[in-house]
Specification:
It is built from 19 helices and 16 strands. It is of the alpha/beta class. A hairpin with a 2-residue loop joins strand 2 and strand 3.
Length: 603
């Protein structure tokens, strides 16, 4: 039986065929005209399966949060691995699929595109005749010149810097060109006088670097890119270049760091928490849990035998080692130490099983195990397949998995292989409930929230309909419900940029239990803060106090979070219902008597 018998559970195995990753025969070609064929990475199929499964889990799998259930989010998913080898294949696949993720890449900061953009800019300040670096910087979000602009610069004579200045001096010069020349000239004048950190800080401020990159990158990559920009600024302070006004020395240090491998190069800093899949080593995930866990690259075996090393036998109760010797490759070892080597092999096997146990027990409800089926002995993938085969021979009930459904309709308690693997039996007793898409009301609420967020950001209705993938009739229904909320007169200041300082949609925070919560819209005025929560259900209840009663604890938590962010301003809470009615609460979540006065609004 299952330990958590009250939760829906699922365990699935996917083994990518090894032949899918094998290199095909290379045809004869003319190397002057035909590029070499691009061979798929051996883990490309596995990474594609993982991305597809994540897309099917999010919004469909019902996860248990306390006493309530809700559709799974990206933040409910952990992607675990034993080593970082080939991890970039999974990251690239997630990025192409539009899946937000937070990684822990070691030594990867200087290889990011944003770090290379800033490095190219600094190269231009040191060597203004470096045309390639100037083209890189101009094309980046720092200046935003387009391909046609670069073609015009490439067509003249002399250096690109000279052509750029001549173009900026023309009467019809576009604003990005004049801006680039003005900023570059200013930064060149400061390059030999300011320490590198101060120079970069000036660049960030004058070029509005953070805002420009935030607008240029997709939403699911934004948190990581902004964290990397901050990490590069911090790096300029930590290196010796931060103490001396030597830009060439700093660039030389960056080149040396980029050439170093792995642990010696600076890490990508962790991005701010949000609704994103977390990528972690199994060791790094100790102590964490998540509703859904993917254990990837499970085909990796125990590793090859060390060519050389130390053989040590030191019992914990002894003061000194019982044995200490050096060893070479297996072919050069005599039989006298076979017992010690076998004991070491068994200990390593136990440690790998312990690591597998740690990975599996991170999952509260669903575990997906994947790898390449290359037949390595002793791999986790092989152990999972053996368990599944034993379950198949035991005659356990077969899974119900209609071809029209991307996920099974019944949740088993044990291991099940993907339909590409041929086996569809579970191990253990069925402990879960049906896995079905969120109900129509919940799905409609999600779409109304997304519509309100887009409209408040200036996205037009046609673009929103395409973004949300809505049919015309459903889009009209969603737009009508959102429009009733936007038409609530007493909430109008919250949606008029001229009447408030700033506003945040889907603002996330950690509640007292450490869970991620989300405020639909937080609006900051000159004298107060509003917290709005949209509600599309229970509209048949005419009494607003009764409607609000189930949401008091939730709104109290929102009020506490808002007060922590804005301790000097009063916080007002409002439930905005999709029938065009609003209900105000006090900052503790209790029923309020009237709407707030607007005297605190900015002039």
């Amino acid at each position: 039986g299952a330990h958590q018998a009250g939760l829906p559970g699922r365990c699935e195995l996917y083994a990518a065929p090894a032949e899918a990753a094998a290199a095909a025969a290379i045809p004869f070609r003319n190397p002057l005209r035909d590029p070499p064929p691009v061979r798929p990475h051996k883990r490309a199929a596995e990474a594609a399966w993982v991305a597809a499964r994540i897309g099917e889990v999010v919004g469909r799998l019902r996860v248990r949060a306390g006493d309530a259930e809700r559709p799974a989010r990206h933040a409910d998913i952990l992607l675990l691995y034993a080593s970082r080898a080939d991890l970039e294949v999974f990251e690239n696949t997630l990025r192409r699929a539009g899946i937000p993720y937070l990684g822990d890449r070691r030594g990867g900061l200087l290889d990011t595109l944003e770090a290379r953009d800033l490095a190219a800019l600094l190269e231009v300040l040191v060597s203004p005749l470096d045309d390639l670096a100037l083209a890189h910087a101009l094309r980046s979000p720092l200046f935003g010149l387009g391909d046609e602009d670069l073609r015009r610069l490439a067509g003249g004579e002399g250096s690109w810097w000279g052509r750029l200045r001549d173009w900026a001096a023309a009467a019809d010069a576009p604003e990005p060109v004049t801006r680039a020349v003005r900023l570059l000239a200013d930064w060149r004048g400061q390059a030999g006088r300011l320490p590198v950190h101060d120079l970069l800080d000036r660049v960030y401020h004058q070029a509005d670097v953070v805002a420009r990159y935030a607008a240029a990158v997709p939403a699911h990559l934004r948190a990581g890119v902004l964290a990397n920009l901050e990490g590069l600024l911090n790096l300029s302070l930590s290196l010796s270049g931060g103490r001396y006004p030597s830009l060439p020395r700093f660039l030389d240090e960056l080149r040396q760091l980029r050439e170093r491998a792995g642990q010696d190069a600076p890490d990508e800093p962790p991005a701010a928490a949000g609704d994103a899949v977390r990528l972690l080593t199994i060791h790094g995930a100790k102590g964490l849990e998540a509703p859904v866990v993917f254990l990837i690259k499970a085909d990796q075996g125990t590793g090859r035998d060390d060519a050389c090393g130390v053989l040590l036998d030191w019992p914990p109760e002894s003061d000194r080692p019982a044995h200490f010797s050096l060893h070479g490759a297996a072919a050069w070892r005599g039989p006298g130490r076979d017992g010690l080597f076998e004991r070491e092999r068994q200990q390593a096997a136990r440690e790998r099983l312990n690591l597998l146990y740690v990975a599996m027990t991170r999952a509260r409800q669903a575990l997906f195990v994947s790898g390449v089926d290359d037949g390595k002995p002793g791999s986790w993938l092989g152990l999972a397949r053996e368990a599944m085969q034993r379950a198949d021979m035991a005659g356990l009930p077969e899974m119900v998995w209609p071809a029209s459904s991307p996920l099974p309709q019944e949740l088993p308690g044990g291991i099940e292989e993907s339909e590409t693997g041929g086996l569809q039996r579970g191990e253990g007793t069925a402990i879960g409930s049906r896995l079905e898409p969120a109900g129509r009301e919940a799905e409609l609420g999600i779409q109304v929230h997304a519509w309100l967020e887009g409209i408040s950001q200036g996205v037009d209705a046609d673009a929103l309909r395409a973004r949300l993938g809505l049919e015309a009739a459903r889009a009209a229904e969603v737009a009508a419900l959102a429009g009733r909320i936007l038409a609530i007169a007493e909430l109008a200041p919250a949606f008029d940029p001229a009447l408030h300082l700033r506003a945040h949609n889907e603002l996330e925070f950690l509640d007292p239990d450490g869970r991620v919560a989300r405020i639909d819209r937080l609006v900051e005025f000159a004298g107060e803060v509003w917290v709005l929560d949209y509600k599309t259900g229970a509209l048949d209840e005419p009494d607003l106090a009764r409607r609000a009663a189930p949401h008091l604890a939730q709104m109290a938590a929102y009020g506490a979070a808002a007060r922590a962010l804005f301790p000097d301003k009063p916080v007002r809470l409002a439930l905005a219902f999709a029938d065009g009615r609003a209900h105000w609460l006090d900052a503790g979540g209790d029923i309020g008597e009237h709407a707030p006065s607007f005297s605190a609004l900015p002039p």
